[in-house]
Write a structure and sequence with these properties.
- The complex is a heterodimer of chains A (409) and B (226).
- Chain A is of the alpha+beta class.
- Chain A is 58% helix and 18% strand.
- Chain A is built from 16 helices and 10 strands.
- In chain A, strands 1, 2, 3, 4, 5, 6, 7, 8, 9 and 10 form a 10-stranded mixed sheet that branches.
- In chain A, a hairpin with a 2-residue loop joins strand 2 and strand 3.
- Chain A is elongated.
- The two termini of chain A are 27 Å apart.
- In chain A, 40% of the residues are buried.
- With 226 residues, chain B is of the alpha/beta class.
- Chain B has a single domain, classed as Rossmann fold, CATH 3.40.50.300.
- In chain B, strand 1 and strand 2 form a beta hairpin.
- Chain B is globular, with a radius of gyration of 17 Å.
- Chain B starts with a strand and ends with a strand.
- Classes of the chains: A alpha+beta (409), B alpha/beta (226).
- The interface between A and B is medium-sized, with 25 and 27 residues.
C-alpha cells in the first residue's frame, strides 16, 4: 500500500475514535509543550543576554595593569599576541554641565570608532550615527550621549538631541548620536567622544588608558589567550613573574556566559526530566490505546489478511496509526508550548520583572525564540515515540492468525 | 480444463486430547468456469475448506493446486500476494472495513497490491452492482444487501481466477438473496470465473452446476447437475 493510502487510512481510523485519540495524546502534548516552552524561553533569554552584552561578548577580554598603559604598550602587546583581532584602549574623564540651576554630571569616554563597534555600542545608536575614522583622527568635537543624558540635559520630552551643541569644559561639542542603553531617568549623562578630542580637551598631558579591551579572533581559546595576555603584558611592562598575579588583571565575559549556560543547563535538565517522564507516560498511553485498537479490530485484521495483506502490511498500518497519533500530539504540543512561552514572557513583562538587569538587554520585554531545530526535534521525538511504543501492538496484530481473527465475534 | 485440485486435504485444530479434525482427507477437482455449491451443516468443515482453498489457512496435510501449482509451497508473503491477485473472498457478514467508503472498500485489494485502480473496471462494477450514487457512503450507511454487493465488488475487482463465497446470502432476506446469487452467476458467466459457494441452503445450491456435500469433514456427495 502506498504511503498516501496508509496515511489516509491511519487518519480515518483515528478520527473514528476522536475522543479517545485526543485523550491518549495528552501525555505527548504535555511532554512536547514542555520541551518547546523551555527551549524557546531559554533561547529568548540567551538572545536577550547576547544582544545586551554585544555580539562579541564571548570573545571580549578586559585587560588592566597596575602600571599605566599607553598607545605604545598596546601596539607592542598586539604585536606579541596575533590571536587578538584588535586591542582598543579608552580614556575616561568627568565634567559637569549646568542646565538651568542644576549641575548635571557627565561621564566622558574617549575611544576609537572600532571600540564602539567591538562592544556592540554602535548597534544601540537609536538616533544619528557614531563618529567616523576621519573625525577620530582629527579629534573632531563630536559626541554620542546616552538616552538618560538626553533626558537630563534637554528634558524628557525631547524628540531629538542630534545636532544640538553640548558644552563640555567650555568646548562646544556637536551631538551626532544617541545611545539607547536601556537605562533612563538616572539624571546622569554618558558621553562618547573621539580619543583625540578627549586628550586635547580633558587630559592635561596624561595619555594613559583607563580601560583596555581586546577582541579575540574567532575560534581562539579564550582561557589560554587570557594567560598568554598576562605573560606578554608582564614582559611589555617588565613586571617580574612573581608579581604578575598582583599587577596584571585579565578577565572576560566568557565566565559569566559559562555560568549562565551552567544555570540554564540545570534548568534544562529539570524541565527535560519532566518532559521525559511525560513522554514516557504518553508513550505507554499510546501503546495501551493501540493494544485496545488491535483487540477491537481483530476481525478487520482477519479480513485484511484474508484479502491479501501480509504481516508486514498489518505492522505498517498500525505503526502508521501510532505515528500519526504521536505526530498530532507533537504538533499540538509545539503550538501549546509556544503559547506557554509567549504567555510567560508576557507575564514576566506585565509583572514588572525587569530581565534587563539580569541580561543587560536594551528592553525589559523579551521575545521567546522560535527555532526550526526545536520544532524538528519535537516532531522527531513524536515519530520516535510513535514507532517505539506502537511497535509491540503492531507486531501483535501482525502475528494474529487470520482464521482465528475471522472467527472472533 | 482443470483449474483447482484439492488433494487429501486434512486440517486438525488443536493438539493431543483437544485435537479436532475439521477436514479429513478431502479430495476433488474443479473445472475452470464451474459454479459449485458446497453444502453441509454448521461445523461440517465448509469454512475450513474455503479458507484452505483461498490460501488463508495452511493444511495439516494435503495440497491445494491452482493451475497446477501447489499454493502452500509459497512463503507467507507470497501467499498474501496470491490471495490478493488470484482469490476473491465473500463472507456472510460482509466484513467491510468500517472506516473506508464504498469505492475504497472495493479497491482495497488493488491498493494493497500497490497498483493503480482501473477506473473503467471500477465504474463498471459499481454500475453492475447498483451502487451508483453511493460511492462515498460508509458501510454503516448501507443496507445489508448493499453491503454484500460492496463485498462482491471487492472480490471481483482484481479479476481473480477463483471466487470463494462463504454463506453470501446467509444474512439476507429472500429478495436480496436472489439478487446476490444472480449477480454471482452473471459474473461467473460473463468473466468465465470459477465460483465456489458455501451454503447450508438447498435452494441456493439448486442454482449451482455441481453440488458437493460435506459432513464431519468428509465429502459425502459430489454430483453434477445439468
Amino acid at each position: 500500500m502506498s504511503m498516501r493510502d496508509l496515511a489516509r487510512e491511519a487518519l480515518r481510523s483515528l478520527e473514528a475514535n476522536r475522543g479517545r485519540s485526543l485523550l491518549t495524546i495528552l501525555g505527548i502534548v504535555i511532554g512536547i509543550a514542555a520541551v518547546i516552552a523551555m527551549t524557546s524561553l531559554i533561547g529568548g533569554v540567551r538572545n536577550s543576554l547576547v544582544s545586551g552584552m554585544g555580539l562579541n561578548a564571548a570573545r571580549t577580554i578586559f585587560i588592566s595593569c597596575a602600571e599605566p598603559l599607553d598607545e605604545d604598550d598596546l601596539n607592542d602587546l598586539a604585536r606579541r599576541i596575533p590571536d587578538y583581532e584588535m586591542i582598543e584602549g579608552t580614556y575616561d574623564s568627568y565634567t559637569q554641565v549646568q542646565v538651568d540651576n542644576e549641575m548635571i554630571s557627565v561621564g566622558i569616554t574617549g575611544s576609537n570608532p572600532q571600540f564602539l563597534e567591538m562592544t556592540g555600542m554602535h548597534s544601540k545608536v537609536s538616533e544619528g550615527r557614531i563618529y567616523t575614522e576621519e573625525e577620530a583622527t582629527s579629534g573632531a568635537r563630536v559626541a554620542l550621549i546616552s538616552r538618560a543624558g538626553v533626558e537630563a540635559l534637554f528634558g524628557t520630552g525631547t524628540s531629538s538631541a542630534v545636532g544640538e551643541t553640548l558644552k563640555l569644559n567650555n568646548k562646544a561639542y556637536t551631538i551626532i548620536g544617541v545611545i539607547d542603553d536601556g537605562i533612563t531617568g538616572t539624571g546622569y549623562c554618558n558621553a562618547y567622544i573621539p580619543s583625540k578630542a578627549l586628550l586635547k580637551d580633558f587630559s592635561d598631558g596624561w595619555h594613559y588608558f583607563s580601560q583596555v579591551t581586546g577582541l579575540a579572533r574567532e575560534g581562539v581559546d579564550i582561557d589560554a589567550l587570557q594567560e598568554e595576555t598576562k605573560t606578554q603584558l608582564a614582559k611589555v611592562k617588565r613586571i617580574d613573574d612573581e608579581d604578575i598575579e598582583d599587577n596584571v588583571y585579565v578577565y572576560s565575559l566568557k565566565s559569566s556566559i559559562d555560568q549562565f549556560n551552567t544555570f540554564m543547563m540545570s534548568f534544562q535538565v529539570m524541565i527535560g526530566s519532566v518532559a521525559g517522564i511525560s513522554l514516557l507516560v504518553g508513550g505507554i498511553g499510546i501503546m495501551n490505546m493501540m493494544l485496545t485498537n488491535v483487540t477491537e479490530r481483530i476481525r478487520e485484521i482477519g479480513v485484511r489478511r484474508a484479502l491479501g495483506a501480509s504481516r508486514r502490511d498489518i505492522t505498517l498500518q498500525f505503526l502508521a496509526e501510532s505515528s500519526a497519533l504521536c505526530i498530532a500530539g507533537g504538533i499540538i504540543g509545539t503550538i501549546v508550548g509556544y503559547l506557554i512561552a509567549w504567555g510567560l514572557a508576557f507575564g514576566i513583562t506585565a509583572l514588572g520583572i525587569d530581565l534587563s538587569e539580569v541580561t543587560g538587554s536594551t528592553s525589559a520585554a523579551f521575545t521567546p525564540a522560535i527555532e526550526p531545530a526545536a520544532i524538528a526535534i519535537a516532531v522527531g521525538i513524536s515519530v520516535f515515540i510513535g514507532v517505539v511504543f506502537g511497535y509491540y501492538p503492531a507486531r501483535r496484530a501482525a502475528k494474529l492468525d487470520p482464521v482465528e481473527c475471522l472467527r472472533y465475534q | 480444463m482443470n483449474i483447482l485440485s484439492v488433494e487429501h486435504l486434512t486440517r486438525v485444530y488443536g493438539t493431543g486430547s483437544t485435537a479436532v479434525k475439521a477436514l479429513d482427507d478431502v479430495s476433488f477437482e474443479v473445472e475452470a468456469g464451474e459454479f459449485i455449491a458446497i453444502i453441509g451443516s454448521s461445523g461440517s468443515g465448509k469454512s475450513t475448506l474455503m479458507h484452505l482453498m483461498g490460501g488463508v489457512d495452511r493444511p495439516t496435510s494435503g495440497t491445494v493446486k491452482l493451475q497446477g501449482q501447489d499454493i502452500f509451497a509459497r512463503s507467507d508473503e507470497q501467499l498474501a500476494v496470491f490471495r490478493r491477485r488470484e482469490v476473491g473472498l465473500i463472507y456472510q457478514f460482509y466484513n467491510l472495513i468500517p472506516v473506508l467508503n464504498v469505492v475504497e472498500n472495493i479497491t482495497l485489494p488493488v491498493l494493497m497490491d500497490g497498483r493503480a485502480v482501473n477506473e473503467q473496471r471500477l465504474s463498471g462494477l459499481v454500475r453492475a452492482l447498483g451502487l451508483q450514487g453511493r460511492e462515498h457512503y460508509l458501510p454503516n450507511q448501507l443496507s445489508g444487501g448493499q453491503q454484500q454487493r460492496v463485498a462482491i465488488g471487492r472480490a471481483l475487482m482484481n479479476e481473480p481466477a477463483i471466487v470463494l463465497a462463504d454463506e453470501p446470502t446467509g444474512n439476507l432476506d429472500s429478495k436480496n438473496s436472489a439478487e446476490i446469487m444472480s449477480m454471482l452467476r452473471a459474473a461467473n458467466r460473463q468473466f468465465k470465473q470459477t465460483h465456489i459457494i458455501i451454503t447450508h441452503d438447498e435452494n441456493i445450491a439448486l442454482m449451482a452446476d455441481r453440488v458437493i456435500a460435506i459432513e464431519d469433514g468428509r465429502i459425502v456427495r459430489d454430483e453434477r447437475r445439468n
